[in-house]
Design goal:
Layout lengths: L1 E10 L3 H13 L4 E4 L6 H11 L3 E6 L27 H9 L5 H16 L4 E7 L7 H14 L3 E2 L13 H24 L6 E3 L9 H9 L4 E7 L6 H6 L6 H8 L2 H9 L2 E3 L8
Parallel strand pairs: 1-2, 1-7, 1-8, 2-3, 3-4, 4-5, 6-7
Helix pairs in contact: 1-9, 4-5, 5-6, 7-10
């Protein structure tokens, strides 16, 4: 049997992304909404969560691109002179490798993000990270600690992504990253006794999932459980100038609401589920 969790990341990053994700839930195939507590549009997102009536959400914790919710004097190694996080994961990883970041400060900030999200009263069923920074083992260890403290059963584990057309150099680079971290990440997850899906799709094509690419993924979906990560939304000035990665968010949205994609799900015998229905 094929079970698929379709995750929409970055709910709370901008108002237009929030609107697009809700459309992907209402009219499309999204089954898991991952909320970013440090996003600029988080409070609007929190209100929408209650109005929309979601029973569960994923915690999409951030150490890059956004601004921290902890007082900056308590986490000085995580922020620059402007009081914001590193713009991308490359800067964060470099500072971690050079031992310029206090891991205790990472724990404090992520715990505060979880507390903010828990205040919504909605069940948190999974943990993931903005720009997938928890793929770095030192950060994954903190995610595991938080998952146990907060009783969150699932952590996103990036593995078994499929190399599908079209070919891009960026996919080779991403595949190398997965290969470098995957084995140690798996050992950490197994030792902690935490659950994860059998497969993870969407990392290699992240930010560029068209209808055709999504149908190829569904046609190649293996048996077992798979999480597919997507980034739907609507284009706005905020997205163009502040969330450049999401420049193709309307392409993701169109794919997730496509009639052909829904037909491909039925044709391949794929059952859509949220994390709460995931069984190993």
């Amino acid at each position: 049997m094929k079970y698929l969790i379709v995750s929409a990341d970055d709910f709370g990053l901008s108002n237009s992304i929030n609107d697009g994700i809700l459309k992907a839930c209402e009219e499309g195939i999204v089954t898991s909404v991952n909320v970013i507590p440090s996003g600029a549009a988080y409070y609007g997102a929190a209100g929408l969560l209650k109005t929309f009536g979601l029973k569960e959400i994923g915690a999409h914790l951030s150490l890059t691109e956004t601004s921290p919710i902890t007082e900056v004097d308590k986490i000085p190694t995580l922020v620059g002179s402007n009081g914001s996080f590193h713009k991308s994961y490359t800067g964060l990883f470099a500072h971690l490798l050079l031992k310029k970041i206090d891991r205790g400060q990472i724990y404090l900030e992520l715990k505060n993000q979880l507390e903010r999200l828990r205040s919504t009263g909605i069940q948190i069923t999974s943990l993931s990270s903005h720009q997938h920074v928890h793929i770095f083992p030192a950060i994954l260890e903190i995610f595991i600690r938080l998952a146990k403290e907060y009783g969150i059963p699932y952590i996103r584990y990036l593995h078994n992504d499929r190399f599908l057309p079209p070919f891009r150099i960026s996919k080779v680079y991403k595949k190398m990253i997965l290969g470098f971290f995957s084995a140690k990440d798996e050992r950490l997850m197994e030792a902690a006794g935490l659950e994860y899906t059998d497969n993870f799709f969407g990392f290699l094509d992240s930010g560029q999932i068209s209808e055709e690419i999504l149908i190829r993924m569904l046609n190649k979906l293996p048996d077992g459980t798979t999480e597919l990560v997507t980034h739907p939304g609507f284009i706005s000035a905020e997205v163009i100038y502040k969330c450049v990665f999401h420049k193709n968010c309307e392409t993701d949205l169109a794919a997730l609401t496509s009639r052909r994609v829904k037909q491909a799900l039925r044709h391949n015998g794929i059952k859509l589920i949220p994390f709460s229905q995931l069984k190993k």
